[in-house]
C-alpha cells in the first residue's frame, strides 16, 4: 500500500504450465538433435565426437531472439492477466457514456470473487493513473478525466469496506487516530480517499482535512490530539505554503504529532526535501506507520 496511488501487481501468466503429452521426452529438442546425428559423424581418431561451434553471428541472433521472445511472453502475460483485463474494463466504464457502468462492473467482479477492497486498492488507483497519463499526453480531455474521476470516487464510496471492528488503541488507552491533510487541489481527492479506506480497514480512526483554512486546521489538531499527520502534496504545491502548514501542525499542540509528507511531490524529484519540518518523507504506508509507531494493539 502506498501514500500515492502506486500499486499494480503483475501476475504470473494465466493457464499454468503446458501439458506434456504421454511418451513425449521432456527434453525432446535435445533428443531430436541427437537422433539426427550419424554414428560416425565428426569422429576423431580417439573415437570422441567433435562438436563444431556455431558462428558468433548466429549465436548472437539466437540470444537476441530468445530475449525478445521472453519479453513478448511477459507482456502478453500481463496483458492477458485478470488484473489487466479488469482494469481495462473499469477504465472503459469510467470514461464511457453509461454513468452506471462502473457500479455494474464492480458488482459483477465482486460476485465473481474479486474482493471489494482489491478493487478499491488496486483497480481504482490504476485506472486513475491511466487517466492522468492520458491527460498529460493530451489523449484525454479535461471533461472526460473529470467525469471519470468522479465516477471512480463514487464507486469508492459505494463499495469501499467500512471501518474494521478491530480498533487500534494508543498507549493512553485512546483510539489511534490519523489526520490526512490535503492542502490544495481539493478537486483531486481520489488518492487520499483510497488511503483513508486502507487505514480504516486496518483499524485506525481517520480524519480528512481537505483545503481547510489555517485557523480551522489548528483547531482540529488541538481538539483531536492525532497520533500522526499525513500530508499529501502534489508537484504544483508551493514549498513556502507547505512549510508553513507543517509549522502550524507542529505548533498546534505539545508534544506535536509526527508529520509524514507523501504524494506526487515525493516521486522522481528532490522538491520534497526542501519542505522543512517534516519528520519523514515516504509514499509507503507501512513505512509511515512504522516510523510513527502506529502498530497499536487491536481490541
TrEMBL record:
According to the UniProt entry, which residue ranges have a biased composition of type Basic and acidic residues?
31-53
A GO molecular-function annotation: metal ion binding
Q: Which PROSITE patterns match?
A: B12_BINDING
Q: Where is this region: Disordered?
A: 1-58
UniProt cross-references to Gene3D superfamilies, sorted A to Z: Cobalamin-binding domain
Location of the B12-binding domain: 175-299
Q: Which InterPro entries match?
A: Cobalamin-bd, Cobalamin-bd_sf
Name it: B12 binding domain-containing protein
Amino acid at each position: 500500500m502506498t501514500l500515492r496511488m502506486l500499486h499494480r501487481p503483475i501476475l504470473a501468466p494465466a493457464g499454468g504450465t503446458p501439458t506434456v503429452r504421454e511418451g513425449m521426452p521432456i527434453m525432446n529438442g535435445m533428443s531430436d538433435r541427437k537422433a539426427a546425428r550419424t554414428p560416425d559423424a565428426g569422429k576423431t581418431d580417439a573415437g570422441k565426437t567433435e562438436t563444431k561451434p556455431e558462428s558468433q553471428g548466429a549465436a548472437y541472433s539466437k540470444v537476441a531472439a530468445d530475449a525478445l521472445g521472453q519479453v513478448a511472453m511477459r507482456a502478453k502475460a500481463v496483458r492477458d492477466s485478470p488484473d489487466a483485463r479488469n482494469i481495462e474494463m473499469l477504465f472503459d466504464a469510467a470514461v464511457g457514456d453509461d454513468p452506471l457502468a462502473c457500479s455494474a462492473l464492480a458488482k459483477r467482479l465482486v460476485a465473481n470473487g474479486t474482493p471489494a477492497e482489491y478493487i478499491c486498492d488496486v483497480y481504482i488507483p490504476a485506472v486513475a493513473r491511466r487517466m492522468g497519463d492520458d491527460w498529460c499526453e493530451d489523449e484525454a480531455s479535461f471533461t472526460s478525466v473529470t467525469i471519470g474521476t468522479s465516477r471512480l470516487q463514487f464507486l469508492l464510496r459505494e463499495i469501499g469496506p467500512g471501518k474494521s471492528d478491530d480498533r487500534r488503541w494508543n498507549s493512553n488507552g485512546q483510539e489511534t487516530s490519523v489526520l490526512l491533510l490535503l492542502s490544495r487541489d481539493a478537486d483531486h481527492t481520489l488518492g487520499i480517499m483510497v488511503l483513508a479506506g486502507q487505514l480504516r480497514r486496518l483499524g485506525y480512526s481517520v480524519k480528512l482535512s481537505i483545503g481547510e483554512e489555517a485557523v480551522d486546521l489548528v483547531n482540529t489538531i488541538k481538539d483531536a490530539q492525532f497520533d500522526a499527520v499525513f500530508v499529501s502534496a502534489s508537484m504544483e504545491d508551493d514549498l513556502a505554503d507547505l512549510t508553513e502548514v507543517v509549522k502550524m501542525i507542529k505548533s498546534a499542540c505539545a508534544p506535536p504529532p509526527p508529520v509524514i509528507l507523501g504524494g506526487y511531490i515525493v516521486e522522481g524529484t528532490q522538491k520534497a526535501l526542501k519542505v522543512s519540518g517534516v519528520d519523514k518523507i515516504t509514499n509507503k504506508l507501512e513505512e509511515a506507520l512504522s516510523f510513527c509507531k502506529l502498530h497499536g494493539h487491536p481490541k
